[in-house]
Amino acid sequence: MPNSDYLNAGHISGVFGVKGCVKVFSFTQPRENILKYSPWFLQKNNQISEIKVISGQRHGNAVVAELEGVADRDAAAALMGSEILILRQQLPKTKADEYYWADLVGLAVETVSGVSLGKVDHLLETGANDVLVVVDGETERLIPFLLKQTVLKIDLEAGMMTVDWDPDF
Protein backbone atom coordinates (compact mmCIF):
# COMPACT_ATOMS: atom_id res chain seq x y z
CA MET A 1 0.00 0.00 0.00
CA PRO A 2 1.57 3.31 -1.01
CA ASN A 3 0.47 5.23 2.08
CA SER A 4 -2.20 5.36 4.76
CA ASP A 5 -4.44 7.61 2.64
CA TYR A 6 -5.54 4.49 0.75
CA LEU A 7 -7.60 1.62 2.11
CA ASN A 8 -7.85 -1.78 0.48
CA ALA A 9 -11.55 -2.38 -0.27
CA GLY A 10 -11.21 -5.57 -2.32
CA HIS A 11 -9.67 -6.98 -5.48
CA ILE A 12 -10.61 -7.85 -9.02
CA SER A 13 -10.96 -11.61 -9.08
CA GLY A 14 -12.13 -12.33 -12.62
CA VAL A 15 -14.05 -11.29 -15.70
CA PHE A 16 -17.79 -11.47 -16.26
CA GLY A 17 -19.21 -11.82 -19.74
CA VAL A 18 -17.72 -10.46 -22.93
CA LYS A 19 -18.48 -6.73 -22.56
CA GLY A 20 -15.69 -5.89 -20.11
CA CYS A 21 -17.34 -6.36 -16.73
CA VAL A 22 -15.16 -7.55 -13.85
CA LYS A 23 -15.85 -9.79 -10.86
CA VAL A 24 -14.89 -8.17 -7.59
CA PHE A 25 -14.22 -9.71 -4.22
CA SER A 26 -15.27 -6.94 -1.84
CA PHE A 27 -14.19 -6.41 1.77
CA THR A 28 -17.07 -3.98 2.42
CA GLN A 29 -20.23 -4.83 4.36
CA PRO A 30 -22.48 -5.46 2.57
CA ARG A 31 -20.25 -6.51 -0.32
CA GLU A 32 -22.01 -4.32 -2.90
CA ASN A 33 -21.13 -1.16 -0.94
CA ILE A 34 -17.81 -1.15 -2.77
CA LEU A 35 -19.73 0.25 -5.76
CA LYS A 36 -20.42 3.46 -3.81
CA TYR A 37 -16.75 4.40 -3.60
CA SER A 38 -16.08 5.61 -7.12
CA PRO A 39 -13.44 6.31 -8.25
CA TRP A 40 -11.37 3.25 -7.44
CA PHE A 41 -7.60 3.29 -7.44
CA LEU A 42 -6.41 0.01 -8.92
CA GLN A 43 -3.01 -1.20 -7.78
CA LYS A 44 -1.17 -3.84 -9.74
CA ASN A 45 2.60 -4.37 -10.07
CA ASN A 46 3.23 -1.32 -7.85
CA GLN A 47 1.34 0.91 -10.30
CA ILE A 48 -1.82 2.79 -9.32
CA SER A 49 -4.43 3.96 -11.80
CA GLU A 50 -7.72 5.73 -11.17
CA ILE A 51 -10.89 4.30 -12.69
CA LYS A 52 -14.56 5.26 -12.39
CA VAL A 53 -17.29 2.77 -11.61
CA ILE A 54 -20.17 3.06 -14.10
CA SER A 55 -22.50 0.46 -12.60
CA GLY A 56 -22.59 -2.85 -10.84
CA GLN A 57 -24.50 -5.28 -8.68
CA ARG A 58 -24.04 -8.15 -6.28
CA HIS A 59 -23.75 -11.55 -7.95
CA GLY A 60 -23.65 -14.37 -5.37
CA ASN A 61 -20.66 -13.82 -3.08
CA ALA A 62 -19.04 -11.51 -5.59
CA VAL A 63 -19.86 -8.14 -7.09
CA VAL A 64 -19.92 -7.50 -10.84
CA ALA A 65 -18.82 -4.03 -11.92
CA GLU A 66 -18.74 -2.10 -15.18
CA LEU A 67 -15.75 0.25 -15.29
CA GLU A 68 -15.16 3.31 -17.45
CA GLY A 69 -12.90 2.56 -20.42
CA VAL A 70 -13.08 -1.23 -20.01
CA ALA A 71 -15.10 -2.32 -23.04
CA ASP A 72 -14.16 -5.95 -23.70
CA ARG A 73 -13.12 -9.19 -22.04
CA ASP A 74 -9.40 -8.70 -22.79
CA ALA A 75 -9.34 -5.28 -21.12
CA ALA A 76 -11.16 -6.73 -18.10
CA ALA A 77 -8.74 -9.70 -17.94
CA ALA A 78 -5.80 -7.27 -17.81
CA LEU A 79 -7.21 -5.90 -14.53
CA MET A 80 -7.40 -9.30 -12.82
CA GLY A 81 -5.40 -9.38 -9.61
CA SER A 82 -5.63 -5.63 -9.09
CA GLU A 83 -6.21 -4.46 -5.53
CA ILE A 84 -9.08 -1.98 -5.27
CA LEU A 85 -8.02 0.97 -3.16
CA ILE A 86 -10.22 3.82 -2.04
CA LEU A 87 -9.26 7.04 -0.34
CA ARG A 88 -9.86 7.19 3.40
CA GLN A 89 -11.88 10.40 2.94
CA GLN A 90 -14.37 8.50 0.73
CA LEU A 91 -15.62 6.64 3.81
CA PRO A 92 -18.57 7.99 5.77
CA LYS A 93 -17.75 9.50 9.16
CA THR A 94 -18.11 7.10 12.04
CA LYS A 95 -20.34 7.64 15.04
CA ALA A 96 -19.10 7.58 18.62
CA ASP A 97 -17.83 4.09 19.53
CA GLU A 98 -17.68 3.06 15.85
CA TYR A 99 -14.39 2.26 14.19
CA TYR A 100 -13.16 1.11 10.84
CA TRP A 101 -10.95 -1.95 11.04
CA ALA A 102 -8.24 -0.02 9.21
CA ASP A 103 -8.17 2.49 12.07
CA LEU A 104 -7.57 -0.27 14.63
CA VAL A 105 -4.74 -2.04 12.82
CA GLY A 106 -1.42 -0.92 14.26
CA LEU A 107 -2.77 0.30 17.60
CA ALA A 108 -0.69 -0.60 20.64
CA VAL A 109 -2.67 -2.77 23.05
CA GLU A 110 -2.21 -2.78 26.80
CA THR A 111 -4.11 -4.16 29.76
CA VAL A 112 -5.82 -2.00 32.38
CA SER A 113 -2.79 -2.62 34.62
CA GLY A 114 -0.45 -1.29 31.92
CA VAL A 115 0.99 -4.57 30.58
CA SER A 116 1.82 -4.28 26.87
CA LEU A 117 0.27 -7.05 24.76
CA GLY A 118 1.61 -5.92 21.37
CA LYS A 119 -0.08 -4.32 18.39
CA VAL A 120 -3.25 -5.06 16.47
CA ASP A 121 -2.10 -6.98 13.39
CA HIS A 122 -5.52 -7.59 11.86
CA LEU A 123 -9.10 -8.51 12.75
CA LEU A 124 -11.18 -11.60 12.14
CA GLU A 125 -14.90 -11.79 11.52
CA THR A 126 -16.35 -14.76 13.41
CA GLY A 127 -20.09 -14.19 13.16
CA ALA A 128 -20.61 -13.76 16.89
CA ASN A 129 -18.21 -10.83 17.22
CA ASP A 130 -15.06 -9.50 15.61
CA VAL A 131 -11.74 -10.63 17.05
CA LEU A 132 -8.54 -8.61 17.38
CA VAL A 133 -5.34 -10.44 16.44
CA VAL A 134 -2.70 -8.85 18.66
CA VAL A 135 0.93 -9.71 17.91
CA ASP A 136 3.97 -9.20 20.12
CA GLY A 137 7.03 -10.85 18.60
CA GLU A 138 6.23 -14.56 18.42
CA THR A 139 3.15 -14.25 20.65
CA GLU A 140 -0.27 -13.94 19.02
CA ARG A 141 -3.37 -13.23 21.09
CA LEU A 142 -6.98 -13.41 19.94
CA ILE A 143 -9.03 -10.86 21.86
CA PRO A 144 -12.79 -10.47 21.31
CA PHE A 145 -13.64 -6.98 20.11
CA LEU A 146 -16.39 -6.23 22.62
CA LEU A 147 -16.60 -2.54 23.45
CA LYS A 148 -16.94 -1.76 27.14
CA GLN A 149 -16.33 -5.45 27.96
CA THR A 150 -12.90 -6.56 26.75
CA VAL A 151 -12.08 -3.34 24.87
CA LEU A 152 -12.34 -0.55 27.40
CA LYS A 153 -10.76 2.41 25.64
CA ILE A 154 -9.60 3.31 22.14
CA ASP A 155 -7.51 6.43 21.64
CA LEU A 156 -6.84 6.74 17.91
CA GLU A 157 -4.79 9.92 18.32
CA ALA A 158 -2.47 8.28 20.85
CA GLY A 159 -2.47 5.01 18.90
CA MET A 160 -3.51 3.06 22.00
CA MET A 161 -6.16 0.54 22.99
CA THR A 162 -6.81 -0.53 26.58
CA VAL A 163 -8.26 -3.99 27.16
CA ASP A 164 -9.50 -6.06 30.08
CA TRP A 165 -7.50 -9.18 29.22
CA ASP A 166 -5.22 -11.58 31.06
CA PRO A 167 -1.70 -11.22 29.59
CA ASP A 168 -1.09 -14.95 30.17
CA PHE A 169 -4.01 -15.91 27.96
Structure notes:
It is a single chain. 6% of the residues lie in helices and 48% in strands. The chain has two helices and 13 strands, in the order ββββββαβαββββββ. The protein has helices at 73-78, 101-104; strands at residues 6-16, 21-26, 40-44, 47-51, 53-59, 62-67, 83-87, 108-111, 116-125, 130-136, 139-144, 151-155, 160-163. A hairpin with a 2-residue loop joins strand 3 (40-44) and strand 4 (47-51). The longest helix has 6 residues, at 73-78. The radius of gyration is 19 Å and the shape is elongated.
Question: Could you outline the blueprint of secondary structure elements for this entry?
Answer:
Blueprint: E1 6-16, E2 21-26, E3 40-44, E4 47-51, E5 53-59, E6 62-67, H1 73-78, E7 83-87, H2 101-104, E8 108-111, E9 116-125, E10 130-136, E11 139-144, E12 151-155, E13 160-163
Parallel strand pairs: 8-13
Antiparallel strand pairs: 1-2, 1-7, 2-6, 3-4, 3-7, 5-6, 8-9, 9-10, 10-11, 12-13
